[in-house]
Design goal:
The strands form three sheets. A ten-stranded mixed sheet has the order 2-1-3-12-11-4-5-10-8-9, with helices on both faces. It has a two-stranded antiparallel sheet with strand order 6-7. The protein has a two-stranded parallel sheet with strand order 13-14. It folds into two domains: about 1-105 and about 260-369, Isopropylmalate Dehydrogenase (3-Layer(aba) Sandwich); about 120-255, Isopropylmalate Dehydrogenase. By secondary structure, it is an alpha/beta fold. The protein contains twelve helices and 14 strands. The longest helix has 24 residues, at about 345-369. The protein binds 3-isopropylmalic acid (IPM) and magnesium ion.
Length: about 375
């Protein structure tokens, strides 16, 4: 197994958490005898500083020649005064568009050892396991026209989708649901927006090709409430770009922290992997960042780009075991819970690494018998 991975650590806590994810991938490669190659590239604020643009051509070219791109986070308050198309975030949107992945998979799971780390009661979150499929290349993020006219004080963004853009992401959602609990919840605002009416009609049309999967439609406002009331009711949640951005952060509450959420973007020339959290410049360099979102993102690289399902599960189990043993990064330190121990970003990475060693050793010992 050969895998060329472009590493875009980015800004703020990006480099710290990405380093831990790369360590885990290196460990998996070593134990499995795989050949993983890593190439570090500039994206976001660090790229603006070094090369004057948030997505340098060299970065894009190298990503297009890789099998997967692993991103940390982008965003730096230094650039807040710049217009949206020159900020670090523009680099992220440009690379998403250039790599072409339109289906952004964002699992939100109530990990058992974290039941007391969520502000939601354990009986509410217990067993919740939601997979968001967020459309990533359309909607308000990319729709034209867009402008802010400072003379007339008028600003415009456009929510725009074609039938085909909706159909292709809907297919991904139904395919994934058919291997899970066989339910798709499609989110829209069809009581107000034409775009949502097209969305609903298209999703309904695609659903007919998946008779074993149940489809339900939810309006985005009530969905925001149901997510917190009855998170267990959902399996695959299909959304347009902005609704998915908002709801996936909300769903982080189910896990206990935004720092826990991984993501994978599939469907394009090169899959793009990024934790859901941002660059958190306020805690950069303090050792407080949670690397588990990035490490779980590495597990998604193994699953979706390397076809190493067993190794992906081993990484996920290692994360669970470390949490089970009581280790938490600062973001997860809720209350003064017995048996809970606060560790740094680096320590958390090392703990997952040794838990992973144990799991893989045991697996190899079993095969040897
Ligand atoms: C996310 C982020 C990005 C988005 C930002 C940084 C552009 O919030 O991945 O959820 O809005 O998609
Ligand atoms: Mg977001």
């Amino acid at each position: 197994m050969h895998l060329k991975i472009a590493v875009l650590a980015g800004d703020g806590i990006g480099p710290e958490v990405t380093q831990e994810a790369v360590q885990i991938l290196r460990a998996v490669a070593e134990m499995g005898g795989y050949d993983f190659q890593f190439q570090q590239l500039l994206l976001g604020g660090v790229a603006i500083t070094a090369a004057g643009t948030p997505l340098p051509t060299a970065t894009l070219d190298a990503c297009l020649e890789s099998d997967a791109a692993l991103l940390g986070a982008v965003g730096d308050n230094k650039f807040n005064a710049l217009p949206p198309d020159r900020r670090p975030e523009a680099g992220l949107l440009q690379i998403r568009q250039a790599l072409g992945g339109y289906a952004n998979l964002r699992p939100s799971i109530a990990y058992k050892p974290l039941t007391n780390n969520s502000p939601l009661r354990p009986e509410v979150t217990e067993g919740a396991n939601i997979l968001f499929v967020r459309e990533l290349l359309g909607g308000l993020y990319f729709g034209e026209p867009r402008s802010w006219n400072k003379d007339t004080n008028l600003a415009i963004n456009t929510m725009r989708y074609t039938r085909d853009e909706v159909a292709r992401v809907a297919r991904v959602a139904f395919e994934l649901a058919s291997k899970r609990k066989k339910k798709v919840t499609s989110v829209d605002k069809a009581n107000v927006l034409e775009v949502s009416q097209l969305w609903r009609a298209t999703v309904t049309e695609i659903a007919a090709q998946y008779p074993d999967v149940t489809l339900e439609h939810q309006l985005v406002d009530s969905m925001a409430m149901h997510l917190m009331n009855i998170p267990r009711n959902f399996d695959v949640v299909l959304t347009e770009n902005l609704f998915g951005d908002i709801l996936s952060d909300e769903a982080a509450v189910i896990t206990g922290s935004l720092g826990m959420l991984p993501s994978a973007t599939i469907g394009g020339a090169v899959n793009l992997y990024e934790p859901v959290h941002g660059s958190a410049p306020d805690i950069a360099g303090t050792g407080k960042a949670n690397p588990l979102g990035a490490i779980l993102t590495a597990a998604m690289v193994l699953r979706h780009s390397a076809g190493l399902e067993q190794d992906a599960q081993a990484v996920e189990t290692a994360v669970n075991n470390v949490l089970e043993a009581g280790y938490r990064t600062a973001d997860l330190a809720r209350g003064n819970q017995p048996g809970q121990q606060i560790v740094t970003t680096r320590e958390m990475g090392k703990l997952v690494h040794s838990a992973l060693n144990e799991i893989i050793d045991r697996r190899q010992a079993m095969h040897a018998v």
